[in-house]
Write a structure and sequence with these properties.
By secondary structure, the chain is of the alpha/beta class. It has helices at residues 58-69, 77-82, 102-116, 130-141, 156-159, 186-200, and strands spanning 17-18, 36-43, 85-95, 124-128, 164-166, 169-174. Helix 1 crosses helix 6 and helix 3 (102-116) crosses helix 4 (130-141).
Length: 203
Amino acid sequence: MRVKTKISCDAFPCKDVEHAGFVVPGIDINPSRISILMISEATPANPGDYYFVRGNPLFQQTTAQAFNDAGAKVPSMKDILELGVYVTTAVKCSKKAYAIGLSTIDECSRLLKREIALFPKVRAILLMGDVAIRAINTIAKRKRRGEARVIPSGSTYKIRGGHFTFQGARAFPSYLQAGPSCLIEKSKRKMISQDIFAAFSLV
């Protein structure tokens, strides 16, 4: 299955993202082999930095480092995928500014909901940053799912370690692992690695 053949945006209503930066993973994947979802923020401004492109893109470098910190010795996104981890973004277009508007996150959560549904055997969902957390909460709170908020409000470091579930899978609120600044703060690197390790402990 190629996810990009299943997920598309026809209207592109959001004003604070670059629509030309729209990306959904185009890799061949067996959905039944995926047990962990990792959802980060948005696609990069430079398409060459995205997870699943040729070479050694930035998102691959920082994500592989996060998994290495957690004890999984993986050099590439292909190796991460072979561990049963599917990595995607909550917002499918690249940002125009540092922040992403709530309306954009909510709109793109409709695509994320369809994307998550492609993977019926997921046991854990890693929510890498506030945008991913907001997107999952939006999916859960709307009548489309009829569920309550998944992740409570509050600073991530305060709510980490709580037991949260989404559609039967354990949800882990964490920090963004993709991009040039994510490996700078050692304390966040440590918490990201702990969350990845905890997700693997379920599968």
